[in-house]
Amino acid sequence: MHTQTKLIAFPDYVPQTQRLAEAAKLPAETLKLHSFPDAEVLVTLPATIPRHVILCRSLHQPNAKLIELMLAAQGAREAGAQTVSLIAPYLCYMRQDTAFHPGEVVSQRIIGQWLANYFDNVLTVDAHLHRIHRLSDAIPVHQAINLTATAPMAAFLRREVEHPFLVGPDSESEQWVAAIAAHDHWDYAVGAKKRLGDRQVEIHLPQRDYSQRHIVLVDDVASTGQTLLQAARALHPFAPASISVLVTHALFVGDALAELEQAGVRQIWSCDSIPHATNAVSLATQLADALQQTILAKEV
Amino acid sequence: MHTQTKLIAFPDYVPQTQRLAEAAKLPAETLKLHSFPDAEVLVTLPATIPRHVILCRSLHQPNAKLIELMLAAQGAREAGAQTVSLIAPYLCYMRQDTAFHPGEVVSQRIIGQWLANYFDNVLTVDAHLHRIHRLSDAIPVHQAINLTATAPMAAFLRREVEHPFLVGPDSESEQWVAAIAAHDHWDYAVGAKKRLGDRQVEIHLPQRDYSQRHIVLVDDVASTGQTLLQAARALHPFAPASISVLVTHALFVGDALAELEQAGVRQIWSCDSIPHATNAVSLATQLADALQQTILAKEV
After folding, report:
1. What pTM does this model have?
2. Which residue of B has its CA nearest to A43?
3. A5-148+283-295 maps to which CATH number?
4. A150-281 belongs to which CATH class?
5. Which residues, other chains included, contact A151 with Cβ-Cβ below 8 Å and sequence gap of 6+?
6. Which of A30, B63, B124, B207 is the most exposed place for a label (fewest CB within 10 A)?
């Protein structure tokens, strides 16, 4: 049925794309990137472009990736693709959705419209939306699908941790921590965050009986890891049995991992939306199911 | 007359923009860039956006710069600008204008159309065009202006070198070396290049009397510097009095400068299209004149 559809992976997203291709029973190929000495990039697509192209890449450290993405998407269209879709399990520039000071450029709207210029559909996971609630409000494409990884994360925890106590460090994490806890009626608590700067936050946790419990700190994205780090430190006085971390998107820039380990965090797990050493939860099945029910359902 | 027009510089292009602003008698401000730990960028424009905005930045090492450029241009438009123009004395992605192998994406056309989505006018200098001859064929904006820096380069050489003998290393450089030589009827010669790879070329020079002459190697852009380096080496057997280098755009990636100096190149000069230690020729007056005669002539 879908012989006219092909996944095309960027070279930095090949294993994930192969797992997704198996789960979705779709063919997959990899495009080539060549950087010239002047830092311009040559994109070479597979020689045969089907009617429906689905480009696969996560968009952490996004700026250079976005230019390569535009060249690949438009190149596929010029080579005959009738629809070009994007699977970007980690999506960028979804945070700045309003101007906090005069002159600030609202990047969410501009990047969203720009994506819509090149893609018919966008599929992502746990996009970090603040003041808007539907991905289609940010990215005006035909189908803008924002999955949540809470089901595979809950299934993973069920295997790994006995009677976990889930802790979301701040109110924004509540949607994820509550959804994961609901799968098995686990205990959970949600802290409060005060942001003092790009790399400085304060976390206050509610008074609960964390003592001798296996705590799992849960969040959608770990960037500098400071939010998780301060949450781990706030847990120490309660003498939990263990502290672990489970996030959807593992950015962990700079020394984030080492700092978490120094703060006594025993295990750090993430979904494979961003290729990272902490990847433990595959999103392939969930992405494949969503693909079948949304983008592929419209393609013949 | 042009109180409704403002130059807005990127932070890496402030001195050049100030010189241009003085020459063009236009106000200039600088926008702000803030990089978050996850490498996303916040662009903050000046609080007051006039009717006509002219963004100023060179586009070497282009990919991340292009995303910032899009955010600034669209942000200016959303803040009320009626026209948004670009002065990019060094323009990127003008070389790949055809597919040499199946699947290769023709970046010139895609980047050109993308620029046209955000800008009303584009002003650049010595864009490296191969198979197309007019910038407007690559960038379908209202006014696409491709100046050549040969006049200020000739004026500079007149002051610096007595009776120079100009050498263009390959046939593509002939347009520049011939134009500069014509200003003062200087001798010039043009070599032939065989490209063996991104960083490997062979240069063959015509038999001329280079002996005891002050040779100036001339080209539009120095990337790895290999073309200039091999040309300098090809000159050695002729025992010239000196070898110098004059280029419009100074990329000089990697060890290019050191290699040229080791090969006996005495002086290396460039225009200020790309901020670089070798900058010796200001393009401000020429850019200001062109601005007055083209983009500003249409604005009221």
Report:
1. 0.95
2. B105
3. 3.40.50.2020
4. alpha beta
5. A183, A286
6. B207
